[in-house]
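Sharing a chain and its predicted structure for anyone who wants a worked example. Both blocks are below, sequence first, tokens second.
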Amino acid sequence: MSARDRERFAALLGEERPDLAEANLLICAEADPRVDVEAGLVQVDALAADARASGTVAVLREAGFHGAMDDYDDPANSFLTAVLERRRGIPIALCTLAIAVARRAGGSIEGIGLPGHFVIADLDGPGPRYIDPYNGWAPLAPADCAALVTRTAGIPFQADHLRPVSERAILARTLLNLRGSYLRRGMPAQALWTVELGLIVAPGDGELSRAAVVLLTGAGRYDEAEEAAAAFLAERPGHPVAAAMETQLETVRDLRRRMN
């Protein structure tokens, strides 16, 4: 992503209802500078044009969008460009597409960030209708959602789990998924940019700030790591991650001393 694209990403997050399609496409551009964001938006607009007549869920189901069962952890399954091309993705990517299409078509679909699984809620009727795009766009009763939480996250279900989440939360979770995929593949440079974008989504987040310092250190960018750690500690000396950040700062300084 160019500096201009990062500025656009930050500007989007300042809007009352950020366009999740454009935000995800800008994330795609960070991974691959060849990505044509405008072309991706044209594809989303075309799906929305059909959805005005037939409904978002029906259009996306009939277009063949489905869960990436065989290669779930492939980072591409989080990218809207790949989802539009291959018609498959992980739950949050399919939900991102559904939300973006519905808003363009005049519908009301929100993201439901269940622990361990992401689904959508169609709010156009008298009550919310929960739908699982990853598993065949299946309708879900609240009891089904509770069972999903128990099975995928292994924790007790709470009624708050069915509360719609914000666009920032969706983007933060998308970037967290990508970071995990990259780290499991031994790709720390790619993991670093997910953290950098994460800090645009959640400025000052302690865990992300610490992760950035760790990844910068691993990349041998010691000056940047030391500067970031020192700045964080100066601004937030009592933060819960301050002790871990101090340890990482000492690690960076020790590495630099060994090089001199």
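Comments welcome. The first strand starts at residue 66 and ends at 67.
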